[in-house]
Design goal:
Largest sheet: none
Distance between the termini: 72 Å
Order of helices and strands: HHHHHHHHHH
Number of strands: 0
Oligomer: single chain
Helix content: 55-70%
Number of helices: 10
């Protein structure tokens, strides 16, 4: 019996488009399997590339993970700015920039949290990706450990800055972030939950949130 030879079909794409394609494929795989289940071969197969082709664009498996997380941060900040009717410069905004611009626009913590939950409700795959990676990255040896440590700190600081003067901003920020994470995990397990509506009802019970 003649052996079957699989021929990998490649389509030439500009470097920017190819990078976006790789990031999209890696995002889907990580959301399903976590970083330790990420295979560069699977990413290459999804994009019509060899493993060396993926490495040419991303440098390493760790580099691919960092690029996925950085890309998601940029996309989320841009989306949140849109939901909050904030102007976004061509260079984009960092999470710290978003907090600053929100304060200048007199956007309070309640509105920011509602926008975050609305954004997350629109992208369950990404919420699943962060939930899985966040748990994995509790290990100091995980390549995203420092990323998640920094991300949590920046989020808590941003929430605290948007809190009303009469509130204990730091404590309120921790309360809100814990509640968000918990509700999102429940939603991932039961997609019939209306995440935005449940958040609004829960937020109404927090007297210092404004």
């Amino acid at each position: 019996m003649a052996s079957e030879i699989r021929i990998r079909r490649r389509t030439r794409l500009p470097a920017g488009e190819r990078r976006t394609q790789i990031l999209s494929a890696a995002t889907s795989i990580i959301a399903e399997r976590g970083f330790w289940g990420l295979s560069l071969q699977d990413v290459g197969d999804a994009c019509g590339l060899t493993v060396n082709g993926v490495l040419h664009h991303m440098g390493s498996k760790d580099g691919l993970l960092v690029a996925v997380l950085d890309h998601r941060d940029q996309e989320d900040v841009r989306a949140l700015a849109g939901l909050l009717d904030l102007a976004v410069p061509d260079a984009g905004l960092t999470p710290d920039d978003l907090t600053r611009v929100a304060r200048e626009g007199q956007i309070g913590l309640a509105r920011m949290c509602e926008a975050v939950m609305a954004r997350n409700a629109s992208q369950p795959e990404i919420v699943r990706l962060y939930s899985i990676l966040g748990a994995e990255a509790l290990s100091p040896d995980h390549p995203a450990h420092q990323y998640f440590t920094t991300r949590e700190r920046v989020t808590l600081e941003g929430f605290a800055k948007l809190a009303s003067p009469q509130a204990n901003g730091q404590l309120l920020a921790r309360h809100l972030l814990a509640m968000m994470d918990g509700l999102q995990l429940q939603w991932l397990r039961d997609p019939t939950i209306d995440l935005v509506n449940v958040w609004k009802l829960a937020a109404e019970e927090i007297s210092d949130l404004s």
